[in-house]
Amino acid sequence: MSPAVTLTPERDDRLSEIFAALAHPTRRAILGRLAEGEASVGELAEPFAMSMPAISRHIRVLEKAGLVHQGRRAQYRPCTLDTTPLDDVTAWTDQVREVWETSFDRLDEYVRRIQNQPDPTSNDKPKPNNERDTP
User: Fold this and answer.
1) CA 89, CA 24: separation in Å to the nearest integer?
2) Which residues contact 28 (CB under 8 A, 6 or more apart)?
3) Which residues form the domain of 67?
4) Which residue of 21, 46, 51, 85 is surrounded by the most CB atoms within 10 Å?
5) Given this model, what pLDDT does residue 128 score?
6) Residue 90 lies in a domain
7) What is the CATH number of the domain that holds 78?
C-alpha cells in the first residue's frame, strides 16, 4: 500500500502561501539575495526595473509566507531570510516523493512483467525453420 500524503487544512493553507510566494521569479531572486545576508528594501529593489511599491508588495507576500522578516533599527528596516517555512515544504515533498517512488516501482514491475509475455494482439506466428528469412 502507498504511503498517504496527509495535510491538515492549516498545513495545506500554509503550503499554498509558501508555494505562491515562491512562484514568482522576482520573489525567488529577493530570497536569493537575502540568502547572502540582510538587506534594505532599497538594496533589494536595485536589480529590478520596478517601482518601490511593487517591490514592497513582493516583500509583503514573502513576509506573509514567513520567508522574510523586516526589522526596525531607527530609519533602517533590514529584511532577513527565514528558511523555517521551507521545513514544511521539505516534509511535504518527502511524502510526495515516497508516493511517486512507490508508483514508479509498481510501474517498473508491471513493465518488466508485460515485456516477458507474448503480445496477444500480434498476428505474427513463429515461422517454421525452413521458412525463416535468410540474409
Assistant:
1) 16
2) 22
3) 9-85
4) 21
5) 58
6) no
7) 1.10.10.10
Cell (9 digits) for 55: 517591490
Return the residue matching grid coordinates 528469412. Answer: 133
Compute how many other C-beta atoms are within 10 angstroms of the C-beta atom of residue 21: 23
Residue 100 within any structural domain of the chain: no
Please state the pTM of the whole predicted model: 0.68
What is the total count of domains within the chain?
A: 1
What gap in Å lies between CA 124 and CA 127, rounded to an integer?
9
Asked, for residue 120, whether it belongs to a domain, the answer is no
Residue 42 lies in a domain: yes
Distances, alpha carbon 89 to alpha carbons 23, 106, 112, in Å? 13, 26, 34
Tens digit of each residue's pLDDT (9 = 90 or more) over 83-126: 999 999 999 899 888 888 888 888 888 898 888 877 667 666 55
Using one digit for the tens of pLDDT, what is the confidence trace for 42-76?
Answer: 999 999 999 999 999 999 999 999 999 998 877 78
